[in-house]
Amino acid sequence: MRNPNQYRYPIGKNRMQPVTQPERDPQKEKWMIGIMVCVTIVKFMLMVYCRRFKNEIIRAYAQDHFFDVITNSIGLAAAVLAIRYYWWIDPTGAVIIALYTMNIWTKTVIENVWALIGRTAPPEFLAKLTYLTWNHHEDIKHIDTVRAYTFGSNYFVEVDIVLRQDMLLNKAHNIGESLQVKLERLPEIERAFVHIDFEYSHRPEHNIAV
């Protein structure tokens, strides 16, 4: 700003002021702090409220509000410190917010990619499904397959059970249907599919492309 150049900057360099040095106005500073604090408090209250729900969409709002609380707090602290101490604290705070934003949303993208590509459920969840299936009914003689994979925020589950060859159709149907209902009551499961067979030495029913 101290070295004007009418050829490169025909209207002067006054617009560089907010880039290089925060404006020192006590009244504006009070308004800025008041507004930012109020917004941050409201965002924090909304975050706490949204976290009370189990719905994934509402919980996503909670995550968004938490992100705003963090960025607003860092931005406010950086602005106040820059006004009172050193001007470079403000852009440093902006860099920190940018890095935090990239880190958070990169993790979110990766998490959603895993959720959409049919990744298998963790071993402890598969063990839980196996336990529930085995103890569902005394006529279940064998468990051929227990498979769970991501489908959005929840899992699709496939279970293959073996019943007696001479069992009546209505009884076999009731066992399979009641098992399906039991599995779909778990909050992590979107849909459950129960396949009933009378032996387990055959090849898999579905070919999986490599």
What report would you give on this structure?
The chain is an alpha+beta fold. Helix content is 54%, strand content 13%. The protein has six helices and three strands; from the N terminus they run αααααββαβ. Strands 1-2-3 form a three-stranded mixed beta sheet. Helix 3 (56-84) runs antiparallel to helix 4. Its main location: membrane. It is a multi-pass membrane protein. It holds the Pfam family Cation_efflux. It comes from Quercus suber (Cork oak).
What's the helix-strand series? HHHHHEEHE
Shape: elongated
Structural class: alpha+beta
Question: Strand order within the widest sheet?
Answer: 1-2-3
GO molecular function, one term: monoatomic cation transmembrane transporter activity
Domain Cation efflux protein cytoplasmic: 135-197
Domain Cation efflux protein transmembrane: 28-116
Organism: Quercus suber
Structure summarized in a few sentences:
The protein is α+β, with helices and mostly antiparallel strands. It has helices at about 15-20, 25-50, 55-85, 90-115, 125-135, 170-185; strands at about 140-150, 155-160, 190-195.
Offer a few descriptive terms.
210 residues, alpha+beta, 13% strand, elongated
Blueprint (SSEs and pairs):
Layout: H1 17-20, H2 26-50, H3 56-84, H4 89-116, H5 123-134, E1 142-151, E2 154-162, H6 169-184, E3 189-197
Parallel strand pairs: 2-3
Antiparallel strand pairs: 1-2
